[in-house]
Structure formats: structure tokens, C-alpha cells
């Protein structure tokens, strides 16, 4: 669990899922994980096959999580389209595949758009760039006369000229990629050069009137011309004093349907088996002791140590195998988790697991007669566990998204998990004294207070390292809270219903709550 759980949301985000899709997948997988303990626990109890059922769930769950690392990525690429001004073709904008027509290039507005041209130069498909012995002119033509602006070649990055027009009303012509042959064969490329043979373009033709120096003109041209060359300029748009850009291009790589459903199925299988295995192991723990305040907490020290040790290792592997483009390789932590799953299965085979037959055990976990299970206090307590499960799931699902946004690496995410579970070890060792001296109900109240403090704190955190102090609070919101909940639940459970209570706590907190 420590190898995988801190990084599942980051992996889903990397695959291209939106926040709503991540929420939906977690909800569906949690629903199926509720069914797992009901089926697996019933089968193991009736057939007395706790060992084989637990091993099966651990291994199948591990294989499902390994398979998640091979789910194809669905990527959406958003970028600004290429744009320049061609004296012959007009305003040229890269044709984005997400536009129905070239008319969607610019947002609709009734305001005039100020068009600034700079860095004008010749572009020749065959011979490369051409330098004219005469200065380049940009001319505006009208009924009352013409006016030309001379381009200063010595100050090419300065604004050549600016004019105003209703850009959205300009007619356009779509130029397919194969027809766009104005590529430059010369190696003398300029940064602002746009034309590429493989890029479809939208040519927006200037439409009268064009306003320059508060006078209106009918057209625009450039000179001196050369037959095999065109004149291109860098262009910037302003509307209402603000710089505006064409609508963004959106390109999708991969199949979103394949990615979504393959991940959903594999994740549901993984969570189904994982929660089933947890419930079965918890049932074995209940068999092993009736000291739900002390011994139960000390047994869970080993689980806390495992989570604390493996989370930063998996995080470091994720960081190490992340390529220069930021693409995560989820397979190293998945295979690490699978390795420990095999070791866990081997230990279950070797170690003796059997029911105790003592009278104390029979009275604690084996129903002897029909008694009323639910009471008013029981219903309120189970409702509190459910709400705590909701709080846990919010952090489990959405906190990695927040930490990624503020720049946390996978190693820092794993380190937060280490602090959380490592800090809980002393409290688990003294759980008996803590539960008896502080009180079960008070510990549950403390869990809510720490949840509140953690929510409030991480809302204002902007540095990755400042997330770590709030991770320490997880010791109380999960580990200490769970010991108090188990002790409280087993106290309320009628004789013979200890196993049922334990299953119910796991299902409410980790299943229905999520």
C-alpha cells in the first residue's frame, strides 16, 4: 500500500484524467471494493479458507496495479497557434484541429482590433531570405490617396506600424497543409517565421475600412516585390488596450475511451482485492487478541513502519524514472509493490493462521444467540466513522493534486507519508494507555480537530516543504483515530459480533466514505 497509494492520483492526472474523472473513478472503484469483503469474507468464513483467499486477493490486486502502469496515456496539448502577417495572403493563422472553421480563430467582439506589425522581412521558398537594396514599404491605399511607411531595417524589432480594423469581419480562406508550400529551404531562419508545409493555415484577408493615422483606407500592400518571394511580418493584436491572442489549439494524443475504461476496470479490481485482503487480515488480527486497545495498536506498528519505509522509496523511483518531458513511469513502484505482495503471500503460507478455540474467543467473535446489534449509540458512532471516512477520502484523492500544483516531487509526497506513519509509531505503542487515559470519544474529537487544522493549513501553503508539517497531523486523523474507532466499536458490539463490527468499520471508512 505504501508503494502505491500516495501516488495514484498523480498517476491518474498524468494519464490525462480531469478532476471530475478522477473523482468518478475513485467512487466507482470504492463501490466495488465494498462488495469485495462481503463476498471474500463470506467465502473465507464458510469454507474456512482465510489463507488461500487472502493470498489470492493480495496477488490479484498486485497484478491489477501493475497492469495500471501499462494503461495508455491520453494527452491533451494546448498551445497558441502560429500567426504572422503576409502582405499578399493577409493575416495567416495556423488552422487548429479543434476549430470547426477558421472563423473560430478570434473571439467575437464589436470593438476595433489594433494590429501591430514589426520585424517585416522577405521570405523566399527556393532561395531563402532576400535582402533588397531598397527599403521595405508598407502602403495603405484609399480613394483619397495612398500613404507608405518605410521599414527601418536597422531597428527590425521596433514596431513598423499599427492600424485598426474589425478583424472578426475579415473573410478567410482555408489553406490545406499540402498546399502550403511557402517553406524556406535556406538555413537562415528567423524566429518569427511561420510557414510550414505540414501546417494548415487560415488566411484572413483585410477588409475595408482599415484605419491608419485616424484615416480610413481600402487595402494594404508591400513593396518592393519579388516574384518568388513574399513579405512576412510579426503581428500583435490589441483590443481595449489589452493584448489578445487567437483561440488556443487543442490536440489529443491517444484514445480517451480506451484509457478511461481500462483504468477504471483495473483500478476497480485492484481496490476490490485490496480492501478484501485488508478486511481478512483484520479478521485474523481480531482472532489473535481481544485486547483491542493495546495489542491491536502494537500489531499495527508493523503496518505503519511498512508505509513509512516504502513511500519515499517509491517516490524516489518515480522521480528518477520521470523523463525530461515530465512523463511518469509508474511501473517501478508498481513492480516494487508486486514484489512485496509476493513476499507477503509467502509469509502467509509459512506462518500459522488458525482460529483460537478458547472460551474467551468464542464469546468475543462467535455469535451464540440472536441479540440486537444496532443501538442508538451504535448508529451515531457508525455515522461518525462514515464522516471520518469522507474526510480521509478527500485528502487521499485531492491532496496529491494540490501538492503537485505547488511543485511537490514524488519523493516529497512519499516523505510526507513517512512523517505521517512514522510519527504514529510511538502512539501505537502506547495505544492502551492513550485510549484509557484520554478516552475513545475524545480521540475521535481530536481527529476532527486535526482534520480541520490540516484543511485550513494546506489551503494557504505555497511551498512544497511546508506541506510536511501538516502531514504529521495524519498520525491523529488516521492511525490514532483508527485505534480509537476499533476500541470503541468493539466495546459497543454485542458478544459474538466482533468480526462483523470490524468488517463494518472497514467498509464504512475505506469503502462507503470514499
Automatic annotation (TrEMBL):
Residues 1-513 form the Major facilitator superfamily associated domain. GO terms for cellular component: membrane. The keyword Transmembrane helix applies. It comes from the Eukaryota. Gene3D superfamilies: MFS general substrate transporter like domains (1.20.1250.20). The chain crosses the membrane at residues 22-41, 53-71, 260-287, 299-322, 334-353, 374-399, 411-431, 443-462, 468-488. It is found in: Membrane. The keyword Transmembrane helix applies. It is a multi-pass membrane protein. Keywords: Membrane, Transmembrane, Transmembrane helix. Belongs to the major facilitator superfamily. MFSD6 family. PANTHER family: MAJOR FACILITATOR SUPERFAMILY DOMAIN-CONTAINING PROTEIN 6-LIKE (PTHR16172). This is MFS_1_like domain-containing protein.
